[in-house]
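REVIEWER CHECKLIST
Item 1: Sequence provided? yes
Item 2: Single chain? yes
Item 3: Sequence as submitted:
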Amino acid sequence: MTNTPVESSLFEPARLGPLQLPNRLVMAPLTRNRAAADGVPQPIMATYYAQRASAGLIIAEATTPNVVGQTYPNIPAIHDKAHVAGWRRVTDAVRAADGRMFLQLQHGGRVGHPDNSGLTPVAPSPVPLPETIHTPSGRQASVVPREMTIADIRSTVADFATAARNAIHAGFEGVEVHAANGHLLHQFLAKGTNHRNDAYGGPVSGRIRFVVEVVQAVADAIGPERVGLRISPGITVNGIEEGDTESIYPALVGALADTGLAYLHIVFADPDQPLFQDIRKAWPGTLIANPVLGWGGPLPADGGRHAGERLLAAGADLIALGRAFLANPDLVERLRIGAPLNPVRDKYAMYTGGETGYTDYPTLAASRPRPETPEPIGL
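Item 4: Structure as written out by the authors:
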């Protein structure tokens, strides 16, 4: 450990709409499965997020806007009063620790199961997830989703808007609409999952329509300065095959460029890729970039600091880190002074519930040995 402050633009303050951020490090949304079975956030979640309140911004984990949108067991929700009350305990704890939070709104689409939500998943087309899915009784084969009708689409758009209002009532500064990583909105963007021949399918202009309508409805509900959008160009997680990545994202960004959104968030951003550079040029507002650090392997020794600095130099405004924040509640301070990082422990502990691998990662202060108390001198 150097104990010498590291010179880096990551630690400079920044503005995000009306928010003043103390640094440019964002805690990325990380599914942790610590909510109750009915989606109500639990007290341990308040502890977890408050521990990480030194991040410039926390984007809280994927949270479902309606029942059918639930992905896995113990995923938080934001569609009834109990959910709002549970999240309010979390945001109060983070605010008391001088933190700021957005809430990610995620509808799983075909990434779901009747044993998780009680309902058959819905999707743009009846194309099942090409892998098994986690349920309360273990991994099961995925089911064929029900193709969404126009009425389903309209009601889902309305559910996102209501969820956004609920998030503000719960004390969040804003929301992030999740159109990445193979979930419902991403399924509409991709040729492999969207086989529709109506206004929500076919050419790029049709496939981006649902995402644009959701974002616009959410912005109308709570104000565009409180709304972010997350995308993952070219990512194939959850069996996604976009087919025309280089066309989808310029069209989507162009359709939303003048809406005044708080930010655009790019997953696994690569500053050397032309698409990243094109999106940066086309997007007039704040750009959050999540660097490519790999998944499942060890964290880089610097926690992603160098990769983040490269992205800032390439035009990003804020840098989102995931696993580094997961394992290091005081990540900002560790990066600032060049301190060693806690490694991410057993990946299965990430999703099993309880304190282990969740709230029990030590801070630097807790890791330092306490000085011995000298024996009293006898008189």
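Item 5: Key structural point noted by reviewer: The domain at 9-367 is CATH 3.20.20.70 (TIM Barrel).
Item 6: Recommendation: ____
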